[in-house]
Design goal:
homodimer; mainly beta; Sulfite Oxidase, Chain A, domain 2; Immunoglobulin-like; 5-stranded mixed beta sheet; 5-stranded antiparallel beta sheet; 8 helices; globular
Chain lengths: 391, 391
Amino acid sequence: MTSSPELTRRQMILSSGILLAGVSQTNGLQAQAPEKDLIFRTTDPRNAEPALNKLITSWITPTKHFYVRSHAPNPKIDPKTFRLSVEGMVDKPLSLSLADIQSHQEYTLTATLTCAGNRRAEFNKEGKVGGVQWDAGAIGNATWTGVALSEILRKAGVQASAKHVWFKGLDEITKGDGIIPFGASIPLEKALGAGDDVGALLCYGMNGETLTADHGYPLRTLVPGYIGARSVKWLGKIVVSDVTSPNHYLANAYKLVKKTESIDWSESGPIYRYLVNAAVGSHEKGAELEAGKADLAGYVLPSGILGGRVKHVQVSVNNGKSWKKAELTGEDSDFCWQLWKASVQVTEETKEIVVRAEDSSGGFMPYRVPWNAKGYLQNSWYRLPVTVKAT
Amino acid sequence: MTSSPELTRRQMILSSGILLAGVSQTNGLQAQAPEKDLIFRTTDPRNAEPALNKLITSWITPTKHFYVRSHAPNPKIDPKTFRLSVEGMVDKPLSLSLADIQSHQEYTLTATLTCAGNRRAEFNKEGKVGGVQWDAGAIGNATWTGVALSEILRKAGVQASAKHVWFKGLDEITKGDGIIPFGASIPLEKALGAGDDVGALLCYGMNGETLTADHGYPLRTLVPGYIGARSVKWLGKIVVSDVTSPNHYLANAYKLVKKTESIDWSESGPIYRYLVNAAVGSHEKGAELEAGKADLAGYVLPSGILGGRVKHVQVSVNNGKSWKKAELTGEDSDFCWQLWKASVQVTEETKEIVVRAEDSSGGFMPYRVPWNAKGYLQNSWYRLPVTVKAT
């Protein structure tokens, strides 16, 4: 996370809300990323990830190559009438226009978002898992512009018994017989941040542009270090509470469960922080290599803990009997991924390239991850099947 | 779990409360297990585990060899004036004497209890963890006699919005400036049980005898499949609620955390079910063996899931390059451990006996468990260092 409140880009990119208002007029009509930039796993709702070779070409992921995770069609929101409500355990409930929000100190920071279901498809080897069948592309690193959630909360006056902050989206998800918004909550301590950690942002900008509809226009949360599901898009309401959100996506999903019955949700806590993870992006699964030197590249993300850093990425061509340390590239910043590259010797016996990583907070990619019914937090050794031909 | 309500031992062991009342007169004065039966990790409060070679001699663990985990001195409770209160989200709050409780259908079932901190001391290799420094003996399999919590709850009338059942002990734990009871909560679904699962018991008997003071006399909960901390001893109060217990031992302990700051507790859910685990009991760490055949034995516990069974226990003398399947002994019953034995060939090169297990619910003992600040759920490959001498 590179946070530079002193060097805001707001005048440049948002021009006191004018550009935001300008873009807003095409909201819902604005051009979506063409399909060639992303691989759509589902189109209604829109769920897409980039090809991995595109993903790893730059430390900052261009918005057109940034994964999209939605549970309903993008809502059409009129920025002129948009209001964010802040209620619950606060002294003074608020109803804020976009201009009200933008009157606060602006922050621009870089942080990686990743879906808890990234690499989900790998669980199917052990037992079928439902949900979007993500490869390893449900991750991206962007620069986010917005205001600190903590400042909005302080303005509302958080009451002493508060413990969690709920987010509700303006999207409309058909669930059983009803329609619900996507929702989440985060612990109050995370919402408020502390020390070097700004906590969570309320964002209106991504990579120097106004947020696109796919990424939550006009307003979303950005919770560095947490799984993407906690960075609620199309944010419409904040509720301060003494308990976690009862919204389905906090209470009954995004948890590690063996089954999906009522007791399983009751027994499991919500996932918040993402785990260390890595993948190969330079080669597709099943790639044909020539015997000799193979140049590999990929991404690595340390666990979502403030100050966490990649300790090492290692590559093996013999299923872990020996490992070669990869070289890290890209910036080394809080809550951000890095890229890596390594040259290894492959022979006709090499059937698989294996990658694992470890981070400074004690996080490591294990040999095997326990299967879970929703297919979350797959961060076992990344395995790239290859065929090697004699030169 | 072998539950046989039709064959109760009540008349034999409790004789309509008479024996219970008789034993009660020595409550607080009754003989404690002599130290030779258990290794005391702390004496105030009483925390003790058996030597592993004693632990694995029988499928049912004799009470004198059953681990003791307490957070305060054993409370002195007069069974004549004892009342269990049942309150919160119920239609009819109850205040029950022991006789009231025993007027319900009696169940006798066998279930394993294990401390979430079993094998904690092994975490110290990676980073010091506080708490009782358990070896692998904080586990035991006993026969429990009591009534179904579900029947008591149905008598009180659980309200529709209820989701969790809190337990409060009568012990007095000094915590900071105050005194608190040990407490826990379990999801309502677990409290009520379903189908073949009786759910939780309110117990007054253990291994055919009245509960000892160390194990919660006169009344404790027994929650099969859950870590021992949810089976609250010296039970005095049950509260039905829509939220989990705010008691320290549910809200701010018995969770997997990297640090122990406020945000860490907020981000982590309570641990309920225990994980598959196994250990060697036939030999001490550092044992001297003779080259050739070595006869090993130990225990194995499948994950705390109804119907879960041990799939296999495997032993390796070469750090996992090859494995030999162990033979299971002891009964094969819900929520119960089994014992195992295996003969392996050791040589002067053998420095370590390694054991791992896998169960029918997909649980497995991993190569390495992520370090956590409280040292819970250590179930990595069990490693027994040995020295082998030429014959």
